[in-house]
Specification:
The complex is a heterodimer of chains A (481) and B (1512). Chain A contains 20 helices and 16 strands. By secondary structure, chain A is α/β, with parallel strands linked by helices. In chain A, the strands form four sheets. In chain A, strands 3-2-1-4-16 form a five-stranded parallel beta sheet, with helices on both faces. The model of chain A is unreliable at 474-481 (pLDDT under 50). Chain B has 1512 residues and is an alpha/beta fold. Helices cover 33% and strands 17% of the residues of chain B. Chain B has 48 helices and 52 strands. In chain B, helix 11 packs across helix 12 (436-446), helix 20 packs across helix 22 and helix 21 packs across helix 22 (721-742). The mean pLDDT of chain B is 93. Classes of the chains: A alpha/beta (481), B alpha/beta (1512).
């Protein structure tokens, strides 16, 4: 074992420099700097090299974290990259946006008492180094296979599957209704967490590796689902979930009450230089407004921090549970607070007030009662606690539900669950339709990017197995080589 | 026994049990071990006289304590005596048969005939007569030997043979040597003929015209009672060899009683498997003019079912009759450790011997008689004692102990001992006594050995002269593919290869092996994973390869083996390699040099996707090898280099085994070397397996290429590539030594082809075909399975152009790697259950455990209820069950003080036991805490390092555990990295802070089974209440070992499994040694039951037990008590970081750093909760099976059933050998609550009575006694009384003074405490002052003796082993290993044997005379002074860790002078007086020896210069 490791007993945790709140709210650039090589090595060397690495256990991708930390600490960056990229198609993205405090870093055995290893920052450093050094290479399959796979959706799950299938030599066609590659990565997540150039760079690697993108194509409208199935050996549905979960309170139809994704997309498009009418009209621009964001998840955090950067007059976040019980990342809450967001914990909206356009939110105070069967405490309204909060803009960040896919695709044969997600057999990742697979949020409901990548990889493996078994000629000795 | 012993029933039951257990592979006669007391008496002038016989009989009566008694209390393990034929006596009997003395050469055969089967008996007589008559001799007749069967125990009586003598006459003019040779042939013919008649209970003790052997299954002291012949005054002899046997088993086997025809042996031949295999090879080329065509009558030389001693005797006999004299045979077969590359004539002699045959290695004291010589000799390590006395009236008396024959002081001319490898001999014809040097000088001069051995060519010469194109390096992608194919991972590269190449050492790891057994894994595991290393325990010792390196050698001869009966220069025509590990350049040079003499065999095959290809390939390489050898090739080169996209590799272990075993069968193996270039070979274990299954040399070219590749990437900073490769080779070589040393094997030639492994999970038929002498009890993977796995790996390696090594996960958990018994989820689930006390949570945890894929053998089994479930209320209480649970030995040092105490407190709270481990315990813990908690471990461990083992420590416990082996690393000692030795740990262990502690592999006072009995005896003296437990590790043959341990009066036997944990150990030891406890436990339970010993001991097991299910299964397999180690750590917060050896445990469990200890969150409550949950779960299971207590299911293997036969690709996986049941004598009765098995009283019983006043009111006393060697551990029981009454320092030095006259038995003053003074006038045996704890021992000769005290031996081997304080003064020389592991006592002696001051960590020793070799090996504390008048010291010292200088500082000069003065005052030593008298002249002859580690921390500097520089 390398004598370079286990330095947590003598070296303190250090994150890459974070820009000051004042500086970072002025633009949409990422707030964290990069490690330099020596800091990355030093921080990586803090790893305890556990016999049971809980960081890996609790990573959806089961990244070989202790191993690439060791390689980084020893300055073996290319090997670190090779290893890191073996389990993760987009480590530079996960390194930036994964809620590490809830996954790897939160499980790190030295977290208690020594503070965890800065896994995400090292992961990002490894891949950025790899890009800088030209180690990131497009797929170059040993053989080109005749079979083709259609992937609906250019988000994390679709892209991960696309890359994995290209490595196997399949002809991969990715269809997306938007005009850019990346799905939520490009339009959903704000630039201060994930700069858009990072996503575009990835898109290019895939395209250079032979993944064919068909953008601005709506399945069910521009091409029928049946036609897609005819054209390709297999189909993977990775559309994600886009239907904003609504809040049926009085006044939710008022102008100025907007869904989170519309709001974030407008902002991201604007950053990318697009013309966005709804933004230019002011409808989706928070500038000068009192903004109230409703919800406690990562999307809500993205909204509040975007609003700050759009020069909102004030930004508040309304959440019905308390800080400890919120679903979003604690690190993001901290960042938002630093940037001036006001959190109203234990508060729930009762109604949106206004005449045509919203002017205030009527909110109630909440008490957390006894835990229910799931173990979570039940929010109970405190009688007589109604109060008004001024608001020119209310952003509903309450989560997402699946769209009605069978209807959109015009294909009733696709079984969905009662929540509207596509039903699959988890062992084969296959839907009720033979040769049609599904992965990502459209299967598991709104979740983390890292789960999307995981599902995409699983789906690619499943598709490969299925094609080899069902379509390819029976294997004869030597033929497979 | 009140009821009558039913002989027939006993024999029938025994036979049935033996058959059953033998079938299941649990028992076999070859598994039996024995050891004993041995010796000879000879008339120096070679004239027969009665005094010789009388002395031998007297000696036999004084070694009863070295033998064992069976469960029936009467049946001994055998004893006997070998003497000259008293002609007068037999002539009288011939007269009675109606014959006259015809004046011929009288010959007598002593014969055991079948007793019950009269027809068979008669057939045997006919055969004997026929063969004697066939060579033309005249038969006088048979004599029924008078015996008194009242001297026998019931079992011995039941199995006794008809004992008769055949008397016949040979021509008087026949040459004596030729006559004996002819009788040897006759005897062999008789033996073979009888076997052809399927008669097995026939045996010829001796058939000779010179000597006769009386032996049988009685206790040694009964020899004359059983054989009244021996009392006849006409029985006179010029020599007598005598022997008392201690066998691990209890089936009385008359034929295995000793002496044998040539020798009597005390010890064990560790290399027996290799030796036997090679002997059968040697038979192919054996030829001698002396035997001519008759030589075929001698084969097979070694009868099946022979004991190691019997086999040794057979070869001794052959070589003797083949023309070599007895001293030369001993020199050849049991050589001394010597660097044979040296220039001395003796080195040349041994170099020649080495090139003739492999040494027979292992503890051995032998006494032998042949061809007019009587010889006694020792093995290379001096692992058995041999003392001798030469009397003024012409007797030479040699034996295992001094004092066995009482000789008046005035008659003693010399008291001596044999050192390692030495011998002493009397040439009876010449009437002359030869000492070691004289014998060996004579042998060295016999031939010009130097010229002969100069024929050998060394590797260095080959390399120097070699030129030509080197083998092309592997292309990067090719290299990756080969690595992948071999199943290598990144983990292997980083964790295994890198440290070897970087540091020249194997990596250290920690905690146990919790990955699945190879046969249960669903991943590719190299074939070496299916070979488990064998190791020594109890009956023979491992070697300390770190500190006794000089006795070991990897020298490898390359070339065909000659005729062992020959003596000619051609026998030395060999290539000589320093080691069997070849680098690529060496391999190249070898191939070039050998040219046509070598034949390369391609060990790859066309991957056509079928299983058959591999089978065909094996046949092909066997045929190719045969063809090559028959056409004159002398070297077979097996290589898998030729693998490619189309060709897959044959696993080279399989290829090697196939070729080796095939050539052996074709009787061709001795004509060739078998050299192996293996792409798969990476770690030391793999090398060991290849060599163990027959490879002469091994080249790991892919490993070498991987090093080159890493070097190219700059990963071996500061090293040239050649250095990195050299480091790797060094690490492999050290590792090989370590693996050999575990078996107690010193020489690679004796290890090679010895199959010192247990196959675990290999198909029985595969093993029988390719690895024939190995056993594979549960069967498993066969050729088909191997083929499909190899093909799959080959396919995978060539599936893509981008080849990544998998990340691994074999040593440490990785999601994509091997499964582990503890994963993250389980750890959390278990901790949650222990934190909250929720049994529901525990059930969730145990469901997770049960849902896992199979990891252990028990995972293939399920319960088979025998009755309806009962209400859980009817099952015994949690409290009752918890008492059977133990937290096994984990030392303070490995654990933080907090964790160690928490365990003890928790276990004491529930009335269960915790085990201290080896590392002492703070005496503050021996009293209760204020809140009533008891932090003292109920079990105190005593292990080979004896760290912190004091009289006080041993008196503060309920049980003392002797750790003979540890599951994680059987055959090796404990390790504590220096980084964990802080001042507290160093204080408790009496060692130096910051210095790594690695306990010796052997207990230096347990080299043999009777030694263990002695240690148990000592421990039962020092603590009159505590039971004694012996901790063993599961291995094949553990059943018979356990039987021996039970006979040694242990109360508890602990069977540890391979999965046990460790704080620090080489990775390959954790992974590849030891067997699952399921196998060991079942074997122990069955063999003990068969021998009616099961009810005498408590059986305990540990090694990865996790849940109630495991506990109940362990019960059904035979265990009474259950150790829970890793789980108890996890309950305290351990999260299996597996960095115990790094001192960085983030949860404060396994660390000594203060900041990390502060993180400890374990509590006694959590631990109690763990054991409560376990007990509750046990109750549930018992209720479901319909039982009300654990006791009812113990040993009930019928309640278990195999539910899975493993992977479909396996030939079979058959747990029947584990589930087999032997019938015991009666019901299984738990001895858990029984009183301990008591040992006989020693002199102390009397002393304690006499010292009443001292013990009651502390008054000062002086006592006086006469003693004999059978009185052992004198002063030990008294010390127990003292320490209990007054504490360790409550009495002043010499408060109770005991004066003793005579020869003291073993362990004089063991653990003696301050206040006790033992004054011996006479001499003493081994283990004087063992564990000395403050007492004072003085040994000096009587003033009446006529010899110079300082030139004679006065105390035995292994003196002051593990002493922690106190003083010893001995006016005379000490034996081997003086002060080994001394950590605080002061000693002055007047000379010592080899290995003195070995691994000392404290204390002060002055030796006023010559020392033996390897002085001060591994010494890291304390100080020594040696008076070196002869100027030999610097050749004898092992200076690795030492600063050696003349005494320069007045302070130290004064210290020494005071010490010598004290010695003079205490012993009246003339030598000391002389030195003091001429102090200034003597002083410059002294050396001061100080460990480097403590030089900087001494109170006073070593030189005055330092003094100045310090004060400046």
């Amino acid at each position: 074992m390398s004598s370079k490791m286990l330095k947590f007993v003598s070296t303190a945790k250090a994150m890459p420099d974070k820009r000051s709140a004042a500086a970072r709210v002025a633009d949409f650039d990422e707030i964290y700097g990069d490690f330099n090589a020596s800091d990355a090595e030093t921080q990586a060397s803090r790893c305890s090299q556990c016999g049971v690495p809980f960081c890996q256990v609790n990573c959806p991708l089961h990244n070989n974290i202790p191993d690439w930390l060791m390689l980084t600490a020893e300055g073996r960056m290319q090997e670190a990259y090779e290893l890191s990229s073996q389990t993760n198609n987009f480590p530079e993205i996960c390194g930036r946006i994964c809620p590490q405090d809830r996954l790897c870093e939160g499980s790190c055995v030295i977290e208690k008492g020594f503070q965890s290893v800065t896994i995400g920052a090292v992961e990002k450093h490894i891949t950025e180094t790899a890009f800088a050094e030209g180690w990131v290479k497009p797929a170059a399959p040993r053989i080109e296979r005749a079979e083709s796979v259609a992937i609906i959706g250019a988000g994390p799950a679709g892209l991960a599957a696309a890359e994995m299938l290209r490595h196997q030599g399949y002809q991969v066609h990715v269809y997306d209704r938007y005009d850019r590659v990346g799905g939520l990565l490009i339009y959903g997540i704000p630039g201060f967490k994930l700069e858009k150039s990072v996503v575009e760079r990835r898109g290019k690697v895939l395209a250079d590796g032979g993944v064919q993108f068909h953008l601005g194509v709506d399945i069910g409208t521009d091409i029928s689902f049946a036609a897609l199935r005819d054209k390709h050996t297999a189909v993977l549905i990775a559309t994600g979930v886009y239907k904003a979960r609504d809040f049926s309170a009085p006044g939710s139809g008022l102008d100025g009450v907007v869904p989170a994704l519309d709001y974030l997309t407008a902002s991201n498009r604007k950053s990318l230089g697009d013309d966005v009418a709804a933004f230019d009209s002011g409808a989706l621009d928070a500038a000068g407004k009192d903004v109230v964001v409703i919800g406690g998840g990562d999307t809500a955090m993205d909204c509040v921090r975007t609003a700050i950067r759009q020069n909102a007059k004030s930004v508040s976040c309304l959440y019905r549970r308390d800080r400890a019980n919120m679903p979003g990342s604690q690190r993001e809450v901290q960042n938002a607070e630093e940037e001036g967001v006001i959190f109203k914990w234990l508060s729930a909206p009762q109604a949106f007030l206004g005449d045509g356009t919203v002017r205030a939110v009527q909110a109630q105070r909440i008490h957390l009662g006894q835990p229910d069967a799931t173990g979570r405490q039940v929010p109970e309204v405190i009688e007589g606690s109604s109060h008004e909060m001024p608001a020119d803009m209310v952003i509903k960040a309450l989560g997402f539900d699946p769209e009605d896919l069978p209807k959109m695709f015009g294909h009733d044969g696709l079984d969905v669950t009662r929540w509207g997600t596509v039903k699959i057999d988890w062992d084969t990742m296959m839907t009720s339709e033979d040769g049609v697979f599904a992965a990502g949020d459209i299967v598991r409901g709104a979740s983390l990017v890292v789960w999307g990548v995981r599902d995409g990889r699983d789906a690619a493996r499943a598709i490969d197995n299925w094609i080899n078994a069902a379509v390819a000629a029976p294997k004869t000795a030597g033929a497979s080589r | 026994m009140s009821k009558m012993f039913d002989e027939a029933a006993y024999l029938a039951r025994r036979a049935a049990n033996e058959a059953k257990l033998t079938d299941a592979g649990v028992y076999g006669p070859q598994m039996e071990h024995d050891a004993c007391g041995v010796g000879f008496v000879a008339a120096r002038d070679g004239k027969p006289n009665r005094a010789v016989v009388d002395a031998a009989i007297e000696a036999l009566q004084a070694i009863w304590h070295r033998g064992a008694v069976d469960a029936d209390g009467m049946t001994g393990d055998g004893a006997g005596i070998h003497i000259e034929i008293p002609r007068d006596f037999f002539i009288e009997h011939i007269g009675r048969t109606g014959h006259d003395d015809d004046g011929g050469r009288l010959a007598v055969g002593m014969v055991f005939l079948p007793r019950a089967d009269l027809a068979a008996q008669e057939r045997c007589r006919c055969i004997v007569e026929r063969e004697i008559l066939a060579v033309g001799h005249y038969i006088y007749g048979w004599r029924q030997v008078p015996v008194d069967i009242r001297a026998l125990g019931a079992k011995a009586k039941a199995t006794r043979p008809e004992i008769e003598q055949i008397m016949f006459s040979m021509p008087a003019d026949m040459d004596a040597v030729a006559a004996e040779r002819e009788l040897y042939l006759v005897r062999r013919r008789i033996e073979k003929a009888v076997l052809q008649h399927m008669i097995t209970d026939f045996y010829i003790c001796s058939m000779s015209s010179r000597s006769i052997i009386y032996k049988g299954m009685f206790l040694a002291e009964q020899v004359t009672a059983f054989f009244p012949d021996l009392l006849d005054p006409r029985f006179i002899s010029s020599f007598a060899i005598y022997h008392q046997r201690y066998s691990t088993n209890t089936m009385p086997t008359w034929r295995l009683a000793q002496p044998f025809r040539v020798l009597a042996h005390n010890g064990e031949i560790n290399t027996i498997r290799g030796n036997q295999n090679w002997m059968s090879c040697h038979e192919d080329r054996m030829a001698s003019d002396l035997f001519g065509a008759d030589i075929e009558d001698l084969k097979p030389l070694i009868a099946s079912g022979s004991s190691d001693s019997a086999a040794l005797d057979a070869v001794f006999e052959l070589l003797g009759h083949g023309g070599r004299n007895l001293p030369m045979v001993k020199t050849m077969m049991i050589p001394e450790a010597i660097d044979v590359s040296g220039d001395s004539p003796r080195a040349k002699l041994y170099a020649y011997c080495n090139s003739v045959m492999e040494p027979w290695d292992g503890p051995a004291a032998i006494a032998a008689y042949a061809d007019g010589w009587v010889v006694a000799g020792l093995d290379r390590n001096g692992l058995r004692p041999l003392r001798y006395v030469v009397t003024h009236d012409g007797l030479v008396i040699a034996g295992s102990e001094t004092g066995m024959v009482v000789v008046p002081d005035t008659n003693i001319a010399e008291r001596g001992r044999l050192g390692p490898g030495q011998m002493i001999g009397v040439n009876l014809a010449e009437g002359r006594l030869y000492k070691d040097d004289e014998l060996k000088d004579a042998l060295s001069k016999r031939r010009d050995w130097g010229k002969w051995v100069a024929n050998a060519k060394p590797m260095s010469a080959l390399l120097a002269s070699s030129s030509g194109k080197p083998t092309a390096p592997l292309a990067p992608l090719d290299l990756r593919r080969r690595q992948l194919m071999a199943g290598w991972t990144m983990e292997d590269m980083e964790l295994v290869l890198q440290p070897m190449a970087q540091t020249g050492k194997e990596a250290i790891g920690s905690m146990g092996d919790d990955a699945p057994l190879a046969v249960l894994s669903d991943r590719y595991r190299g074939l070496h994973h299916f070979f488990r290393q064998n190791f020594s325990q109890v009956t023979n010792p491992p070697i300390d390869s770190l500190r006794e390196r000089h006795v070991m050698s990897l020298r490898t001869r390359l070339g065909n083996l000659g005729n062992i009966l020959d003596e000619a220069p051609e026998q030395c025509d060999h290539l000589l390699l320093d080691s069997p590990v070849l680098t690529v350049p060496e391999w190249d040079a070898l191939c070039r040099y050998l040219g046509d003499k070598a034949h390369v065999i391609d060990c790859s095959f066309d991957n056509d996707g079928t299983d058959q290809a591999l089978t065909d390939a094996l046949s092909r390489i066997q045929a190719e090898a045969e063809e090559a050898v028959r056409s004159g090739c002398e070297h077979v080169m097996l290589s898998d280099r030729n693998v490619s996209e189309t060709r897959a590799p044959i696993p080279m272990i399989l290829a090697t085994g196939a070729v080796h075993s095939y050539l052996v069968r074709q009787q061709l193996r001795t004509f060739t070397s078998v050299n192996v270039a293996s792409g798969e070979c990476l770690d030391v274990h793999h090398f060991a397996v290849l060599i163990g299954v027959g490879a002469t040399t091994v080249n790991a070219y892919v490993a070498e290429a991987a090093i080159a590749e890493r070097h190219g990437r700059g990963l071996l900073a500061g090293l040239e590539l050649a250095d990195a490769v050299a480091n790797f080779v060094k690490a492999v070589e050290e590792g090989l030594l370590k693996i050999m040393s575990k078996m107690g094997i010193s020489i690679i030639a004796s290890y090679r082809g010895g199959y010192n492994f247990e196959a675990l999970g290999l198909s029985r038929s595969l093993v029988a075909e390719y690895f024939p002498p190995m056993s594979s009890r549960i069967s498993g993977l066969g050729l088909k399975g191997i083929a499909s796995r190899v093909i799959a790996m080959h396919d995978k390696a060539y599936a893509s152009d981008v080849v990544h090594l998998p990340v691994g996960g074999f040593f440490r958990f990785r999601k994509s790697g091997e499964r582990h018994a503890f994963d993250g989820q389980m750890i959390h689930a278990m901790q949650h259950a222990c934190d909250t006390g929720s049994f529901e949570s525990w059930k969730k945890y145990s469901e997770l455990v049960n849902a896992q894929g199979p990891i252990n053998l028990r995972d293939l089994m399920a319960f088979k209820p025998a009755a309806d479930p009962i209400e859980i209320d009817r099952v015994e209480s949690i409290t009752n069950i918890r008492k059977r649970l133990v937290s096994p030995g984990i030392s303070l040092g490995a654990l933080s003080p907090e964790a160690h105490e928490t365990l003890s407190i928790a276990m004491n709270r529930i009335g269960a036991k915790s085990d201290s481990g080896e590392g002492g315990e703070d005496p503050a813990r021996f009293s209760l805490r204020e809140n009533g908690d008891n932090p003292s471990s109920a079990i105190k461990q005593i292990a080979s390092g004896r760290f912190g083992v004091t009289a006080e420590y041993l008196n503060n416990c309920e049980e003392i555990e002797i750790k003979v082996a540890q599951g994680a690393k059987p055959g090796e000692g404990g390790q504590l990295p220096g980084i964990k030795v802080n001042s507290l740990i160093a204080r408790l262990r009496h060692s130096t802070p910051g210095v790594t502690l690695i306990s010796p592999p052997p207990h230096h006072d347990i080299y043999s089974i009777e030694d263990l009995a002695q240690l148990i005896y000592d421990l039962k003296q020092i603590n009159p209440d505590a039971k004694v437990c012996v901790k063993l590790v599961a291995s094949t043959g553990i059943g018979t070992i356990a039987a021996g341990v039970a006979k040694a009066k242990a109360d508890t036997i602990l069977v540890s499994g391979h999965g046990g944990g460790t704080g620090a150990s080489p990775q390959s030891s954790i992974k590849y040694a030891g067997l699952p406890w399921e196998m060991g436990l079942s074997e122990v339970h069955q063999v003990l039951s068969m021998n009616d010993l099961r009810n005498k001991v408590v059986l305990r097991t540990d090694g990865g037990l996790k849940t109630g299910r495991d506990v109940v299964m362990a019960a059904m397999l035979g265990a009474d008590e259950y150790g829970i180690g890793t789980s108890s750590l996890i309950a305290m917060g351990c999260i299996m970081v597996r960095q115990c050896h790094s001192n960085t445990c983030p949860v404060g469990v396994c660390t000594q750093r203060d900041d990390l200890r502060a993180k400890f969150e374990g509590t006694p409550e959590k631990v109690v909760q763990l054991f409560t949950h376990l007990a509750e779960e046990v109750r549930e299971i018992l209720a479901s099976l319909g039982f009300a207590s654990l006791q009812e299911v113990i040993g009930r293997t019928d309640l278990l059933t195999q539910v899975s036969r493993g992977d479909a690709a396996l030939d079979d996986l058959d747990l029947n050998p584990i589930l087999v049941r032997a019938d015991g004598e009666g019901e299984l009765v738990s001895s858990r609550d029984a009183a301990r098995t008591e040992v006989p009283d020693t002199l102390d019983a009397q002393i304690v009575v006499d010292a009443k006043l001292a013990l009651e009111n502390g008054s000062k006393m002086q006592l006086s006694y006469n003693i004999e060697n059978t009185q052992r551990a004198i002063g030990t029981r008294l010390s127990s009384h003292i320490v209990r009454r007054f504490g360790m320092t409550g009495l002043r030095e010499g408060h109770v003074s005991v004066r003793l006259r005579g020869s003291a038995g073993q362990s004089l003053g063991a653990f003696a405490t301050q206040g006790l003074r033992l004054d011996v006038i006479g001499d003493a045996n081994d283990y004087v002052g063992k564990g000395l704890s403050g007492g004072m021992i003085v040994v000096r000769p009587s003033a009446a003796v006529g010899f110079v005290a300082s030139e004679n031996t006065i105390i035995g081997n292994t003196v002051l082993y593990g002493a922690t304080s106190g003083k010893l003064f001995a006016a005379g020389q000490a034996g081997e290993r003086l002060c080994v592991r001394n950590s605080g006592a002061t000693a002055v002696v007047e000379g010592s044997g080899s290995n003195a001051c070995e691994y000392m960590t404290g204390g002060m020793v002055a030796i006023l005379g010559e020392v033996g070799s390897n002085f001060g090996a591994g010494m890291t504390g304390g100080m020594a002074f040696v008076y070196d008048e002869a100027g030999t010291f610097m050749d004898r010292v092992n200076p690795e860790t030492l600063t050696i200088a003349r005494l320069q500082h007045p302070h130290w000069q004064q210290v020494l002078r005071d010490l010598v003065a004290e010695h003079a005052a205490e012993t009246e030593s003339l030598l000391a007086a002389r030195i003091l008298n001429q102090w200034n002249k003597a002083m410059p002859n002294f050396w001061q020896i100080v460990p480097n580690e403590i030089v900087p921390i001494l109170d006073m500097p070593l030189t005055e210069d330092d003094d100045l520089s310090k004060s400046a």
